[in-house]
Amino acid sequence: MSFKVPRGTQDILPEQTPKWQKVESILRDLSRVYRYKEIRTPMFEQTELFQRGVGDTTDIVQKEMYTFEDRGGRSLTLRPEGTASAVRAYVEHKMFGAPDQPVKLSYIGPMFRYERQQAGRYRQFVQYGVEVIGSADPAIDAEVISLAMDVYHSVGLKNLQLHINSLGDKETRDAHRTALINHFQPSIGEFCSDCQNRLEKNPLRILDCKVDHAHPLMESAPKLTDYLTEESSKYFEKVKEYLDVLGIEYVVDPNLVRGLDYYNHTAFEIMSTASGFGAITTLCGGGRYNGLVQDIGGPEVPGIGFALSIERLLLALEAEGIELEVNDSLDIYVVAIGDEAKKKSVELLSSFRAKGISADMDYVDRKMKAQMKSADRLGAKYVIVIGDSELEEAAVNIKQMESGNQEKIQFVELVNYLLEHK
Ligand code: HAM
């Protein structure tokens, strides 16, 4: 019997992890400069949290959750996204009472959705996300969008497009909802059964149906933007003004509705416009969710955030032909000839590593020539070969691989030499 990774998941192999670590360190650095403190929540939560948070009529809740019963008979779900968990933690730990408001959180971790596997769509993927809870200042909307854009600029991506929209407030949504029902009702028989169910429960969800997206009634459907209340319009204008101040270009996209129920006011997505990018071009999505904190049992506190997956970020890098510079270097490879030399190598390796110098040697009994080859393959910056005469002299020729230059150095001086030259 042979085993394979479960469908929709992938192994990140040792050759690939340096790239991941590089991206993760860029993300952590950006969180630090923007001052979004990291939160780590469990990988699973009570199922009801997502039903209430993400929304009962969304694809995520209806079709994509990994839900299971634990041995105590509780219904638990592997988190499909991070916002509901962050808000749950915010309420549970009464962060609304903290002296510094708003609360600015960030997270990196795996999320799980039972989706059809295709390029850029996995069943386990790693999201980086941020949530700002406790501010309804349009300047924070612009800050959140700016942080998302900075992520992509920091890794060197150029072919990006920011789409923004306003989903308005409750009044906006109610008026739009009625208009949508009137629009779709006469022809609802032509739509899939999910859409038929959505008509009364949540007609907005019809607009992001993956089955009927090409139906002509989709294009002519009433736009939320035509129903914005004066207050919502003003808010949206302010957000755009701040984006202009930041020099961030955007496209106002009235069709952008997002696939989760908690959104209102600002909604945004960042797309890759690189020609080599696959069918799914959305790299990042987010928006405002005033009302979610209350839905999850907290006070009436507004919020906004976004999430992006590292998988799609890496695909976008590939599409633009960008190689991240990663630190995977080997400072020195020690070749040993004979038992005594090997003991010395073990000792030297330990002294190198204690000073942060990356060092390696042979552990599979290879001949000297093969060891040299190994050093070359591993990209060692320096190589030393220890045999009987080196032991006698307590010194060794250290060879810089790139130039081929050699210098004789006492064993006791090697660490200092490398610290100066590596
Ligand atoms: P979302 O649009 O469902 O929003 O997902 C955000 C991002 O996660 C997507 O733009 C994409 O980069 C990535 N993503 C989603 N599903 C997959 C998948 N199957 N495979 C690979 N990547 C995927 C949310 O999750 C919201 N919680 C975002 C948010 C935070 N809104 C406010 N705060």
Automatic annotation (TrEMBL):
Q: Name one GO cellular component term.
A: cytoplasm
Q: SUPFAM superfamilies, from UniProt?
A: Class II aaRS ABD-related, Class II aaRS and biotin synthetases
Where the protein is mainly located, per its record?
A: cytoplasm
Key word Kinase present: no
Which cellular compartments is it found in?
Answer: Cytoplasm
Which residue stretches, if any, does this entry annotate as coiled coil?
none
CDD domains according to UniProt: HisRS-like_core, HisRS_anticodon
One term of GO molecular function: histidine-tRNA ligase activity
Q: Which PROSITE patterns match?
A: AA_TRNA_LIGASE_II
**Catalytically driven reaction(s):** tRNA(His) + L-histidine + ATP = L-histidyl-tRNA(His) + AMP + diphosphate + H(+)
Q: Which residues bind L-histidine?
A: 81-83, 113, 127, 131, 258, 262-263
Enzyme Commission code: 6.1.1.21
Stored InterPro entries: aa-tRNA-synth_II, aa-tRNA-synth_II/BPL/LPL, Anticodon-bd, Anticodon-bd_dom_sf, His-tRNA-ligase, HisRS-like_core, HisRS/HisZ, HisRS_anticodon
Q: Which domain of life is it from?
A: Bacteria
Q: Which UniProt keywords apply?
A: Aminoacyl-tRNA synthetase, ATP-binding, Cytoplasm, Ligase, Nucleotide-binding, Protein biosynthesis
Q: Locate the Aminoacyl-transfer RNA synthetases class-II family profile domain: which residues?
A: 1-320
Would I find Translocase among this entry's keywords? no
GO biological process terms, semicolon-separated: histidyl-tRNA aminoacylation
The record's listing under NCBIfam families reads: hisS
Q: Quaternary structure per UniProt?
A: Homodimer.
Q: What protein family is recorded?
A: Belongs to the class-II aminoacyl-tRNA synthetase family.
HAMAP family associated with the record: His_tRNA_synth (MF_00127)
The protein here is known as Histidine--tRNA ligase
Name the gene that codes for it: hisS
